[in-house]
Amino acid sequence: HFSCLLAETMSSSSLSYKPYKFAHILSDHTNEVRSVCRHPIFDNACVTASYDGTIKLWLLKDNESNAKAPPTYSLELTYISHTDYVMTVASSSQNIYSSGHDKKVVQWSNGMDAVAQVEVENAHEEAISRLAVNGDRLMSASWDKTAKVWDISGGQLKGQPVAVLKGHTNHVDAVCILPNGSYVTGSRDKALKMWDSNGRCTSTVSDAHQGSVRGFCVVPQLGFASCGSDGLIRLWTNKGNPITNWTAHDSLVYDVSYVASTAQLKADTMSDEDEGLDKGNGPLLVTSSEDQSIKIWSPDGLLRQHIEFPSCVWQTALLSNGDLLVACGDMNAYVLTIDASRVAVSTEQVENIRKKIIESKEKRTGVDPSQLEDVSVLSTLKGTKNGDKKMVNENGQSMIYIWNGGEWEKFGAVVDDPSLQGKQLNKEDGKFYDRVWKVEVSDGVQITLGYNLGDDPTRVAIEFCQENNLESYLVDQIVEFIMKNTGQDYKPNMSNQFGSFDPYASMEREEGKTTSALDQEREKDHFPLKKPELVTGMPKPEAVVKKILSLNEELQKEGNQNVLSADDIKEFETQCQQLSSPSSAKYSEEFFSVLEKMLKWPQTKQFPVFDVLRVVFLSADAETYFTTRNAQHNKNIAKEIVNNCMQDSSNFALTLMALRTLINMCQWSNLKPLITDSIEDIQKTVPVLNKASKDPVRLTIGRFLVNLSYVAHSESANFKLQVLDIVNTLKGISKNLGNTQGREEYAYDVVRSVGTLCLISILKAEESVCKAASPKFTAFCKQYERTSVQSVKLQAASYQLLQVFSSVA
Length: 809
Fold this sequence. Notes:
Elements: H1 2-10, E1 21-27, E2 33-38, E3 46-50, E4 54-61, E5 72-80, E6 86-91, E7 96-100, E8 105-108, E9 116-120, E10 128-134, E11 137-142, E12 146-151, E13 163-166, E14 172-177, E15 183-187, E16 192-195, E17 201-205, E18 213-219, E19 223-228, E20 232-236, E21 242-247, E22 253-259, H2 262-268, E23 284-289, E24 293-297, E25 303-308, E26 313-318, E27 324-328, E28 332-337, H3 347-362, E29 389-394, E30 397-403, E31 408-413, E32 435-442, E33 445-451, H4 457-467, H5 474-484, H6 503-510, H7 516-523, H8 541-558, H9 566-576, H10 589-598, H11 607-616, H12 620-633, H13 637-645, H14 652-665, H15 672-676, H16 679-684, H17 686-689, H18 695-711, H19 717-730, H20 740-763, H21 767-785, H22 792-807
Antiparallel strand pairs: 1-28, 2-3, 3-4, 4-5, 6-7, 7-8, 8-9, 10-11, 11-12, 12-13, 14-15, 15-16, 16-17, 18-19, 19-20, 20-21, 22-23, 23-24, 24-25, 26-27, 27-28, 29-30, 30-31, 32-33
Helix pairs in contact: 4-5, 7-22, 8-9, 9-10, 11-14, 13-14, 14-18, 18-20, 19-20, 19-21, 20-21, 20-22, 21-22
């Protein structure tokens, strides 16, 4: 019977097959493109979601300068709402939905305004790994071991799930809604579960795959397909009975998607005049793998095409014209087509893709598989603990297996390319780790972190920050990241600038008692700020130079007139060696001339420029140069930074570095007037800053507000009121940070900023400032004066500011 089903499904497919070719490259994300889908309204429009926390819309447009040239994709919108990695995006017939590590489900408008229409906060207790849509139902899969079903009837996501599907014993990574209204879930526990339309589990296949179940897709006339970490594709009936299976890849398969035949596309998505797929192609299944490739299959397991990419492939999606949209780990999305008239990439671009693929293959570890035990040894060998790794010879290839507590699970070929996330990599230091991740330490900046199971996450995080000159507030975020991604319970460590966390003192606070620690903090002066608080974390000179040289080469190809000459590069390389000791650095006039040239580079290339500039401003030479520059040429560097680098709500990476640069300017008496002259420009950036979606940016905004209040010491009451308005508008950011520690750290900076402005004003008989602050910040302080707050410094500072308000009431 199943053979007949397969034969019927394949009847529309002839022996001919027209291969897919690279047609477009969609480049704008600053981290891996994790998920893709087509837009519900705009024909052939692409939606891409990334670990950079954004979702982007790309529209296919005709070439205005050459009517005969194929149309090209242009970036139209960037959707910003998520505060962490975006893991998944899906579209219904009306809307776009997205989810990720911030645990919320977002419904976006389908127009050209990038509005988040509905945001369901804490939709799950852990990260949301996958969304699936069918009709008026949306499914979400989560690392909290559950899946949920949501009502989206009428184009409106309802705030409460209609069903919560519980029963898996590990992360749920795959969900599917079948045409008959039933649901399917797949988990890292290797099980597949079937659920009826009311959310009742009707059957369980305990070993649906030999490893994690990663993805599903509906296969019309058959049922559905599943993929997993074992590299297999399995076909199932709508009742969960197996039909057939085959090995698709030698590594993890992250996704399987269905490509309709031309007839199905025309019926479902295409206009009469759009021919779409060639009549000889389809139906097909497409698998996306960690091995940096997709494979295209007929449903009977016949391989039709194998296409390689520069990095791992996360997902594919079918566009309305039959083209394939591909999410890739190299930060790009790719569009593939079988129609030569739609190929817009140049021969040079295709060659560049080919070179990157070759380069990635050259990064194999070179471990000789003949020196390893055969894979058969795993049948008698057991791991000592979860996460134990074993490298074996499998068919002449070095493969890594991981012990999951019951058996060995294949994780893929041995590689040492840090861009391949989630594998046991041979890092640049020559060591193997149980886990290796790309950790985002700020917008657009990632550093490779290696971790061995059983190590102390706090010690690893502290050493990681010290080795990479990262700021201390990142320690707890890195600890949380490690623990959540290794299945450990995360409990925040409160031993940062808020003082040591005392569990006994915490119990006393819950009982309403006043602790000695709080009394001690109330005795201290938390404001006014007596000196600026600078950003002192240093970039690695060699890494900065490498990035600048790469960008300079790109500008040279583009014909930019501000390209650095050979002498400029030599001077830059020499002077950058002083970045590791900034306070004693002596920078040359030639070096500042090079910086001036780089400050004229396009915004998209200025992130590393400001990473250097913020450190340069720790030197007295910077004060001398930029003061003279302003006096002689009327060029205010603060105004330039604010107006050129803090106006784009989508470029928070540059905003982060711009803020850090302004902060480091605050220590110099001759540069403070440049900042005060820029106050109205700063006020105009407040709407942009309020949209900050990353915690490092938000925390830096808090640091900037504190330093701006310090700059206001010697300024007029009117200037202080301007700063006060900025702080008031931005105080709500404290609610958006991802953890309690971060929220209280930001709130502490807000209280200190207002306290500094008020006390200095009182000393200068400018009580209007304090009277203006009192109604705006009294409620804010009262919520943090409560004994339930973890930070005793925040409690004490809030208490002190309320005392100041009462003194002028």
